[in-house]
Amino acid sequence: MFSDIAPRYDLLNHMLSFNIDRGWRKALVQRLTPSLRLPGARVLDLCCGTGDVLLDLQTVAAKPVIGADFCHPMLLAAAGKARARGFAAPLFEADALELPLAANSLDAISIAFGFRNLVNYRAGLAECLRVLKPGGVLAILEFSHPPSLAMRAAYGFYSSVLLPLIGALVSGSSEAYKYLPESVKKFPQAEELRAMFEAEEFVNAGFELLTGGIAALHTGEKPFGLNRRSNA
Ligand SMILES: C[S@@+](CC[C@H](N)C(=O)[O-])C[C@H]1O[C@@H](n2cnc3c(N)ncnc32)[C@H](O)[C@@H]1O
After folding, report:
1. Which of 136, 114, 133, 135 is nearest to 124 (CA)?
2. How would you list the strands of the sheet with 203-210, edge to edge?
3. DSSP 8-state class, residue 222
């Protein structure tokens, strides 16, 4: 599904969100800026897709930001965009649930609009916790559920009627843009996701609702002195 939409992914992203996604990505970069500026920081943009977040993170990062995704055409698009900006992004193909990375090796992980697609959210959080260094930060930007009834109704109509129609017309894939609102509907409420972070032993777990709760930025930190899951 992601391979099918890769060529038109960026265009549709900005078009369907009226460019609001740019502000959401900016909030993610701001949250991770202290980690990005650490000397020798190792930061992973997981489910990096065509690399928009990776490229934004790179503008403040002290070291090259690493990107990973399990969809080859998405990675090719990300590599091309990085090259066009004059650098070679370190990218690798992997499933977010089984990262080929050593335990305690990253200062921060960002996941923008990828986490919702994982088949097991608790396993995804556990894998991030494993590869983060103690004190490392996980930031997940994802669609969420607007608390206001009026906003929920307006957004519900847009995302389940208009968005699949425009998405299918522009991308040529009716499946992907029908899947999007369906997957958002099934996605946990922000409060539930925060509880999952805590159940996986992240500390300082919290979230910020963006654009009336259409999206949310979730963050949590790996505690110091956590011994379980420390195998590579
Ligand atoms: C909606 S796109 C988001 C891409 C990018 N982060 C952005 O903000 O534009 C979701 C991405 O997650 C990737 N993805 C979904 N499930 C994955 C998994 N289990 N492991 C690795 N990548 C995954 C898809 O291939 C796709 O590129």
Report:
1. 114
2. 91-93, 66-69, 43-46, 106-112, 132-143, 215-221, 203-210
3. P
Asked if 208 and 23 touch (Cβ cutoff 8 Å), the reply is no
DSSP bridge pairs for 112: 141
For residue 231, is pLDDT > 50?
A: no
Ligand 1 binding pocket mutation candidate from 117, 175, 177 (most atoms within 8 A of CB): 117
Flag whether pLDDT at 229 surpasses 60: no
Q: Which two tokens stand for residue 95?
A: 């499933």
Please name which of 16, 221, 222 lies closest in space to residue 113, comparing C-alpha atoms.
Answer: 16
Residue pair 32/108 in contact by the 8 Å Cβ criterion:
yes
Centre of ligand 1 from the C-alpha of residue 119, in Å: 12
Residue 227 has a pLDDT of 60
Q: Which residues touch 50 (CB under 8 Å, ≥6 apart)?
A: 6, 9, 10, 74, 77, 78, 81
Distance CA 171, CA 77 (A): 15
The two tokens of residue 42 are: 């190792």
| pLDDT for residue 140 | 98
Which residues have any ligand 1 atom within 6 Å of their CB?
A: 2, 13, 47-49, 52-53, 69-71, 74, 95-97, 112-114, 117-118
Residue 1, both tokens: 């599904």
CA distance 58 to 76: 18
Residue 65: C-alpha distances to residues 57, 72, 101, 186 (Å): 7, 18, 14, 31
Angle at 36 between CA 34 and CA 38, to 5 degrees: 75
